[in-house]
Amino acid sequence: MLRCIAVDDEAYASRLLAAYVQKIPGLEMVATTTNPIEALQWVQEGRADLVFLDIQMPELTGLQFLKICGNRCKVILTTAYPEYALEGFEHDVVDYLLKPIAFDRFLRAVQKAQALVPAAPEPITTTPTTPGNGYLFVKGESKNKFLRVNYADILYAEALGNYLAIHVPGQRLVTYQPLKELAELLPQPPFLRVHKSFLVSLDKITMIDGNTIYVQDKAIPVGETYRESLFRLVRD
């Protein structure tokens, strides 16, 4: 499933792209926005696989966006200005769509992107376990493949839009499930929600500095809602 974002300073243009995306299997429109800076944050956080990007926008043009985001995701340019096509392809864009965009032309561009972007991992499923088991099983990247993950190996878990990443030494396991669901499977403590997007193992924390937790070299924010319970456990 390719996670898509539409970025256009004209909201109706993004709505059209969202309607097109809904018709195509294997695509999910996770956000539409008129703010390119907001979209850039999504890309930099790894929350998008494919961006439909307008060129002429205030604050940050599409070409400036491409220079900043680098190769973090695939981009299809959507614009009314054909003169930017060459420069767009110099940034390795997948395709260049001229407005008004017909669905058949949109579909061909998307098929190019689907051929270039590796398929997302199959959703990880977890088998309910009791805290005494000390482990859970997660579904791997192929059918009927399950990986055992020991509680002791889990560093932290991170919500990524509609996805979830379980971080263990040297590996990141991705699942299409809410962080809350994983939290209910893990013993608390040592596992604790510290932010709406993060769950950490208290055993793996190397330092707490104000509202930031460090797990190895990862800086994790502490949400205001979770701050009191975290520091109560630390003090105890």
From TrEMBL:
Tree of life domain:
Bacteria
**Tell me, what is one Gene Ontology molecular-function annotation carried by this entry?**
phosphorelay response regulator activity
Q: What is this protein called?
A: Two component transcriptional regulator, LytTR family
Gene3D superfamilies in UniProt: 3.40.50.2300, LytTr DNA-binding domain
| HTH LytTR-type domain boundaries | 138-209
- Species of provenance: Hymenobacter gelipurpurascens
The family database entries (Pfam families) matched by this protein are listed as: LytTR (PF04397), Response_reg (PF00072)
Stretches assigned to the Response regulatory domain: 3-114
SUPFAM superfamilies from the entry?
Answer: CheY-like
Matching SMART domains, A to Z?
LytTR (SM00850), REC (SM00448)
Keyword line: Phosphoprotein
Q: Which residues carry this modification: 4-aspartylphosphate?
A: D54
